[in-house]
User: Fold this.
Amino acid sequence: MNEIPKTLAEIEALPGEVLTCKQVSYVLAAGEMWLHKQAIEDKSKLDFPVIVYGTRVKIPKQPFLKYMRGELYANP
Assistant:
């Protein structure tokens, strides 16, 4: 799949266990660069887990899907 996923079903179908900011930005209706910057500057403001190492940001797929379905609350 070379296109940007536009639905949760398309994200769920992606191979692998981590996502990029680009892959989730459309579903969140957020800019890719905004999401990337927010994760690096203060990931606690995002309500789903992110992995930041250096300038790279990865989003664990299963927790992100649970968050989008209302099953995961990072800030109760």
